[in-house]
Structures are given as structure tokens and as C-alpha cells.
């Protein structure tokens, strides 16, 4: 899983022309991906940790003051000898997680620090989700943190392609897809097909609606149609895995992030950790080249160094 291709080699071409290329499902999972993509995604993922700890899940810190008898650990918390959250435990996990993530974002000791970030974030989630509420928007981000250490040391400008990087990004891609598909499955499992004809969206807008969504309550059938559309899109989420070209990936990410922004504009709910996982689908290895192209016209208009002696003035 550590095989790499030469710099500048397109991963799709490398996978197709390699003498020992994998076929079928194995070829999909281990299709080489540029290491630069993992480097950029790693930076984004680790820098998001303090944002999540201090903003999006700041409420977890309040569990330090909750009576220990209220702690009802998730299955993993019962199987592993995890400590009961106390003020000291929660504070230690919080600051150790943030510190490890900030150092890991620099690229130092990627396997050691990356593993520490994953384990500490996992414990942070167990602390947060063991009091009766489990969010489904964090599994993709948690898997992302789990697979990043498996790739090892990478650089933003590393143009080599790697099967290890391909497996890591494929694992996150599949988890992102399953987040949508299993969300639809859960709707039908617990709410039946009546979920699509019920008043789920109407209730959400009544409770959390904005000026951008309140008007939908006055349009008969609109929200029921939106619920059917949501189910259809979530159940067809496996089709995402057929997307491979650069343009298609950008379009897919734009569609997914646009959907989550629309939900936020409508009911002020957004799944930020999941959105970070979605960003891993993008071809980030093209970012340095794009920056270089943007700088090129500027450099042409403002050439470095003095004008040659005797040169005519411009204009």
C-alpha cells in the first residue's frame, strides 16, 4: 500500500499503465492519489480541531460539571477502559487534543501526533455523545483523522502519487457517502415512509426558521416534496463513488456544500465536521499550480530588476 509513482504522473494514468495494476474493487480502493492532496487535507483537518473544540462543540466542556452518575457511555466506552468524565479528565483531553492538533498541522511526526489527535478526538466524542445525544455528522471527520497517520510524511508540493494516499482518501469518500445513505435508512427505519409525508421540515422551520425559509410554510406541498427529494438524493448517494474526474469532483463538492449552506440558511443547522470531510474529495494537489498561474500575469506585468540601459520608456 506504500507504492508511489514518479513526480508529475497523473494518478489515473499511473493506475492504468502500471504493470502490476490492481483491478476491480481493489483497484478502486488503492487507486494512487497525489501526496500533495493528503498534505493539504491534513492541514485543514488538524486546524479545524480547535475550531470544533472551542466553537462547534464547546458544550462538551460543560460535561465536566455534570454528575458522574449521568454518564452513560457509548458501546466503545463500555468496551474500552475509558475514564468517567470529571472536571480534570475533560480539561486534560480538551487541551491535549488542541495542542496535539496544532503541532500535527505543521507536519511533524505525522504518525505519532496524528494517532494522538485521532485517539484524543475519539475520547472527546465519547465524552460528548454519552449523555443521550449522538450526532451523525462526525463519522466522516473521525475517519479522516484515523486514516491521515497511515500515509506518513507528506508535503504540499509533493507530486508523487501513492496507493496509501489513495486508500486513505477512498476511505473518507466512502464514509461521506455512507453518512448520507445511512441518514436516509435511519429516516425510514425509525419514521417509516410516513417520514416523507410528515411535517419534519415544517416543524424545523417553525422552531428554527429564518427569513429565507419562513415563506415555505405558506406553499402547500413544497416541504413534503422537499422531503421526498431529500430521501431520493440520500438513497442514491452511492452514485457519488462513480465520480473521478477533476471537474466532476469539484461539481460534487460544490453541490454538497451548497446543500449544507442552504440548510444552514433555512434552519441554522450546519454539519461543519462533515463538511471538512467533504473537502477531502477535492483535487487539492492542483492548488500550488493554480497559485503559480495566478501569480504569473502579475510577474509579467511587473518584471523583476531594472530596465536595460538605453531602453525606451514605456508608452
UniProtKB/TrEMBL annotation:
The chain crosses the membrane at residues 39-62, 82-105, 112-132, 138-154, 166-186, 222-243, 250-272. Coiled coil: none annotated. The keyword Protease does not apply. It comes from the Bacteria. Residues 1-22 are annotated as: Disordered. Keywords: Membrane, Transmembrane, Transmembrane helix. This is HTTM domain-containing protein. It comes from Geodermatophilus pulveris.
Amino acid at each position: 500500500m506504500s507504492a508511489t509513482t514518479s513526480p508529475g504522473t497523473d494518478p489515473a494514468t499511473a493506475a492504468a499503465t502500471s504493470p502490476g495494476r490492481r483491478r476491480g474493487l481493489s483497484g478502486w480502493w488503492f487507486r494512487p492519489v497525489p501526496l500533495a492532496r493528503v498534505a493539504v487535507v491534513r492541514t485543514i483537518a488538524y486546524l479545524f480541531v480547535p475550531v470544533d473544540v472551542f466553537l462547534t462543540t464547546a458544550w462538551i466542556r460543560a460535561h465536566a460539571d455534570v454528575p458522574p452518575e449521568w454518564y452513560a457511555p457509548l458501546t466503545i466506552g463500555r468496551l474500552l477502559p475509558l475514564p468517567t468524565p470529571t472536571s480534570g479528565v475533560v480539561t486534560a483531553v480538551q487541551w491535549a487534543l488542541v495542542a496535539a492538533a496544532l503541532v500535527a498541522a505543521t507536519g511533524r511526526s505525522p504518525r505519532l501526533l496524528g494517532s494522538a489527535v485521532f485517539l484524543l478526538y475519539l475520547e472527546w466524542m465519547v465524552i460528548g455523545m454519552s449523555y443521550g445525544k449522538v450526532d451523525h455528522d462526525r463519522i466522516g471527520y473521525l475517519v479522516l483523522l484515523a486514516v491521515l497517520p497511515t500515509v506518513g510524511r507528506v508535503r504540499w508540493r509533493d507530486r508523487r502519487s501513492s496507493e496509501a494516499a489513495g486508500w486513505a482518501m477512498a476511505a473518507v469518500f466512502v464514509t461521506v457517502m455512507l453518512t448520507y445513505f445511512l441518514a436516509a435508512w435511519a429516516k425510514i427505519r425509525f419514521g417509516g415512509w410516513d417520514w416523507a409525508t410528515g411535517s419534519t421540515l415544517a416543524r424545523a422551520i417553525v422552531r428554527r426558521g429564518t427569513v429565507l425559509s419562513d415563506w415555505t410554510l405558506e406553499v402547500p406541498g413544497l416541504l413534503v416534496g422537499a422531503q421526498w427529494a431529500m430521501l431520493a438524493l440520500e438513497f442514491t448517494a452511492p452514485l457519488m463513488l462513480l465520480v473521478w474526474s477533476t471537474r466532476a469532483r469539484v461539481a460534487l463538492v460544490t453541490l454538497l456544500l451548497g446543500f449544507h449552506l442552504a440548510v444552514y440558511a433555512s434552519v441554522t443547522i450546519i454539519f461543519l465536521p462533515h463538511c471538512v470531510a467533504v473537502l477531502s474529495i477535492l483535487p487539492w494537489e492542483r492548488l500550488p499550480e493554480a497559485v503559480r498561474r495566478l501569480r504569473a500575469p502579475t510577474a509579467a506585468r511587473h518584471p523583476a530588476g531594472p530596465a536595460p540601459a538605453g531602453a525606451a520608456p514605456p508608452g
